[in-house]
Specification:
Length: 578
C-alpha cells in the first residue's frame, strides 16, 4: 500500500520533480521526462528510453553516461504520450540520430512510433528497438509479441555503451537488437501493487500462493502455485529460462549475465538468498556467470515479486556490458569526467503556441471548452466504475487514465480559449494535453481523435453541422488507424455506430443537436452490447474469457463523453434561442 502522496493525480509529476532535485548533477527536467544534465559529444547517437512511471529505477534512473541520453516518463503504469517522447528526444539528441528503446506494450508502441514519425518529419534520423524478454507473455513462436520487463536493462546498457563509443545509429540499433534477441526473463509475484490513492491492489494472490508469469503493470500471472523455498524458486526460474535459450546458445561453456530483480517489496536479503541458489543452479548447468546484478532494477511500484533475467553474451556484448556507466541508479566502472550543460540548455522549456481565431471561431472555442469541462466532470463522476469494469480482464487503470487525460485537456482548453485560440486550436491543444497526461493506449487514441477534430474544424469560422460531421468522421478514421475494428471489444464498437448515425442524420437534414442526440443514443446502446463480445486487442485479450458479460470500459467512457457533449450543445442552443 502506498502511503506517502499528496494528490494522487499529481504523484508522477511530483515524483519527477523530486527525482531531478536529488540528481541535478546527472539529469535535468524536460517536457515529458528527463535528459542528461551533462554534455555529450556532437554527432553521437542519443538513446532515448521510456515507459510508464512506477518502475524506478527504470526509466529516469538509467539516464547518464554510458546509458540513456533521455527518458520519457508517462504517468503511473501508462505509456508516455507521443508529445512527451518527441520532446525528450529533441532535448536529448545531438546530431547522431535517436534510438528509441522501450518495453513492448501496446500504448508504448503507439506513442513511440508516433514520436518517431514526428521526429523524422523534422529531419532527425530515428531507429527503434522494442524489448521483448518476458517468456511468459507469448509463445516462442510469437516472440515479437512478448513484453519487456527487467531485460530492459540489458538492452539499454549495451545500446548506451555502443552510443558512447561513437558508433553509427545503425550500428547501435543492431547491437541493441542482438542484446534483446539474447535476453530472456521470467517472474513471479506474491502480492499485487497498489497505486497512490487506490483502496485495493491491482490484483491479489491468496495467502501462501504466488502468481507465475505476471507483468509489471498489474497484469495477473498466467498461473498460480504454492510459494516455494528460496531454492525452489531458483529452480523454477532457472529451469524455465534454460528451456528458452536464444538460437545457437548451449548452456555448457556459455557466458551469461543473471539479473535477479526485485519488483518493489522483496528485501535485498531475500534476493541474495535466492541468488545463491541461482548461481549454484547455473554452475551445475556448466554456465559461466559474468558480472551479475541483484537488486531493484525494473520494479512494479510496491509489488512483492521477483524476476530472473538471463542475458547470454558474446564477445561484443560482454565488452559493452562491462563498459563504464554513471546514472542516478546504475553505475559501473570508474568515474568518467563530465561537463554540465550550459545554463540556457538547463533551463530550456516548452510553451504551447496558440493560433488566434476569428471572432466567430473564438465563440465556438468557448463552446468547445465548455464541452471539455463537461467531459471532465462526467469522467470524474464515473472514474471508479470505469476502473472496476476495466479490472475484470485488464489492469483497472482506465478510469484513472481517463480522469488524468480529461483533467489535463480541460485545463489546457480553458487556457487556450482564454488566450484567444480558435475552436480548432483549442481541440488540438486539448488533445495534446490529454495524450500527454493520460498516456497509454487510451491517451494516444483520444489525443489523435481531438487533433483530427481540431484539424477539420479550424480557426476561421463557426462550424456547420456538416463540418462537424466531417470532423467526427476524420476523428473516427484517426482512431481506426490504431488497428481496432468493430467486434474487437474496444472504444471502436461505440465510435463507429456514433459516426454512422451522426453522418446519416446530418445528411438527412437534422440540426447539430438532433443529429448528435441520435448518434449518442446509438453509441450508448453499442457500448452496452460490448458485454457479449470477447476482447481481441490490448491487455484484456490475455484473459478475454473473463470479460464476457462485462461491457468494454473504453466503449462505455466514449458513450458517456458523447452524452456530456450533448448536454453542452443543448444548453448552447437554448441560450441562442432564448
Amino acid at each position: 500500500m502506498t502511503r506517502l502522496f499528496n494528490d494522487p493525480a499529481d504523484f508522477a509529476d511530483e515524483m519527477v520533480d523530486g527525482f531531478v532535485a536529488a540528481n541535478r548533477a546527472r539529469v535535468r527536467k524536460v517536457h515529458g521526462g528527463v535528459a542528461r544534465s551533462t554534455t555529450s559529444p556532437a554527432g553521437t547517437v542519443a538513446l532515448v528510453v521510456g515507459g510508464g512511471s512506477g518502475h524506478y529505477p527504470a526509466f529516469g534512473g538509467l539516464v547518464g553516461h554510458g546509458l540513456a541520453a533521455g527518458a520519457a516518463m508517462g504517468n503511473l503504469f501508462a505509456s508516455p504520450s507521443a508529445q512527451q517522447v518527441t520532446a525528450v528526444a529533441k532535448a536529448s539528441e545531438h546530431g547522431g540520430g535517436v534510438l528509441l528503446s522501450y518495453g513492448n506494450y501496446a500504448g508504448d508502441v503507439l506513442n513511440f512510433d508516433a514520436a518517431a514519425r514526428a521526429l523524422e518529419a523534422q529531419g532527425i534520423d530515428v531507429r527503434t528497438v522494442r524489448v521483448t524478454d518476458d517468456v511468459a507473455s507469448a509463445d516462442r513462436t510469437e516472440a515479437h509479441k512478448r513484453r519487456g520487463i527487467a531485460g530492459d536493462l540489458c538492452v539499454f546498457k549495451v545500446a548506451g555503451a555502443a552510443a558512447e563509443q561513437g558508433r553509427t545509429l545503425d550500428d547501435v540499433a543492431a547491437v541493441a537488437t542482438k542484446a534483446n534477441d539474447r535476453t530472456r526473463s521470467f517472474g513471479v509475484a506474491f502480492s499485487g501493487c497498489s497505486l497512490p490513492g487506490a483502496d485495493e491492489p491491482l490484483f491479489t494472490v491468496p495467502e501462501g500462493r504466488m502468481a507465475i508469469g505476471m507483468g509489471i503493470h498489474g497484469e495477473r500471472g498466467i498461473g498460480e502455485s504454492d510459494v516455494p523455498t528460496a531454492d525452489g524458486l531458483a529452480d523454477l526460474l532457472v529451469e524455465r529460462l534454460l528451456t528458452e535459450l536464444p538460437e545457437g546458445v548451449e548452456p555448457r561453456g556459455s557466458r551469461v549475465v543473471p539479473i535477479l530483480n526485485g519488483l518493489g517489496s522483496v528485501k535485498y536479503e531475500e534476493l541474495f538468498v535466492v541468488f545463491g541458489a541461482v548461481q549454484r543452479k547455473l554452475a551445475a548447468a556448466g554456465v559461466e556467470v559474468v558480472e551479475p546484478e541483484v537488486g531493484e532494477l525494473v520494479t512494479s511500484f510496491d509489488m512483492a515479486g521477483v524476476s530472473l533475467t538471463l542475458f547470454w553474451l558474446d564477445d561484443e556484448l560482454a565488452a559493452l556490458w562491462s563498459a563504464p556507466a554513471d546514472a542516478p541508479a546504475y553505475r559501473k566502472g570508474g568515474a568518467v569526467p563530465q561537463e554540465p550543460v550550459t545554463a540556457d540548455v538547463l533551463e530550456a522549456g516548452t510553451v504551447v503556441p496558440v493560433t488566434a481565431g476569428t471572432d466567430e471561431s473564438q465563440q465556438s472555442a468557448a463552446v468547445v471548452a465548455s464541452a471539455i469541462a463537461a467531459i471532465r466532470a462526467t469522467i470524474a463522476e464515473h472514474a471508479d466504475e470505469l476502473g472496476r469494469i476495466d479490472a475484470v480482464a485488464g489492469d483497472g487503470d482506465h478510469g484513472i487514465g481517463m480522469q488524468r487525460g480529461s483533467t489535463a485537456a480541460d485545463r489546457a482548453a480553458q487556457d487556450a480559449a482564454a488566450r484567444g485560440a480558435g475552436a480548432g486550436s483549442v481541440l488540438a491543444i486539448a488533445g495534446d494535453a490529454w495524450s500527454d497526461k493520460a498516456g497509454g493506449t487510451s491517451g494516444a487514441i483520444w489525443g489523435a481523435a481531438l487533433e483530427a477534430l481540431g484539424r477539420v474544424i479550424g480557426d476561421e469560422s463557426r462550424p456547420t453541422a456538416a463540418e462537424v460531421q466531417s470532423a467526427v468522421h476524420a476523428a473516427t478514421e484517426a482512431v481506426l488507424a490504431f488497428g481496432a475494428v468493430p467486434g474487437d471489444k474496444t472504444m471502436v464498437d461505440a465510435l463507429v455506430p456514433f459516426d454512422d448515425v451522426f453522418t446519416a442524420r446530418v445528411e438527412a437534414g437534422d440540426d447539430l443537436v438532433s443529429a448528435w442526440s441520435a448518434a449518442s443514443a446509438a453509441a450508448s446502446a453499442a457500448a452496452d452490447a460490448t458485454a457479449d463480445l470477447l476482447p481481441r486487442m490490448g491487455r484484456a485479450r490475455t484473459h478475454g474469457e473473463d470479460a464476457v458479460g462485462t461491457p468494454d470500459a473504453g466503449a462505455i467512457s466514449f458513450a458517456l463523453i458523447t452524452a456530456a457533449v450533448l448536454t453542452t450543445l443543448t444548453t448552447t442552443k437554448e441560450r441562442q434561442h432564448a
